[in-house]
Write a structure and sequence with these properties.
- The structure is a single chain.
- This protein is about 35% helix and about 15% strand.
- It is built from seven helices and eight strands, in the order E-H-E-E-H-E-E-H-E-H-E-E-H-H-H.
- Strands 5-4-3-6-7-8 form a six-stranded parallel beta sheet, with helices on both faces. It has a two-stranded parallel sheet with strand order 1-2.
- Strand 1 (about 1-5), helix 1 (about 5-15) and strand 2 form a beta-alpha-beta unit.
- The longest helix has 15 residues, at about 175-185.
- The chain is globular and about 50 Å long.
- The mean pLDDT is about 90.
Amino acid sequence: MTLGSSLSAFLQSCYISKEKIVTSFHYVDHYYYTRSRQLEINNSGRLNVLVVGSLQRNFYLLESVVSKLENIKFTIIAGNNNLSFLAKYKNIELKGYISEKDLKDEMENADISLNILEDTVGSNVITTSLSMGLAIIVSDVGSIRDYCDESSAIFCRKENQYIEAIELLNNNRELLYFLRLAAIEKSKRLRIDNFYSFINTI
């Protein structure tokens, strides 16, 4: 059993029969990760871009993106990583390890989930962000399209694409709103109940 189609494809490239591979996905505990406030179009407030996760992230590319978007607020949850080199930027709120409750609160107060990835390790950040109604800006790598599509996400590969995606949503708040609504809808397929049902069929 694998988590994600890219690992399944890798195993097949190692001459493991497709029939022996069961592809599953990261799920979301939607009973917990559900918004307490209804989504609204944020027409005038400063955008809050949330960055969560440490595995297979490109923090140096993140720094380059942040440095060019001084009008955007970035909340970066560093966990146990030493990201003190980002503290010099006035548009960054840098936090260390936080509780699950505080993480949910951060997601509720954010607009966008920014994920500059080397690979799709720890896709639970994606699934929880979708369930909390965050528009997804994400690297087009690994199994990411198992979780997102163009209705809820903007896929990027180069620095300028991340910058342009954030600027696009900053300037088009209606598009941002509809991406966020689509994210919640997309997350329904990834709910923990569906994961249990799938496991029980194996």
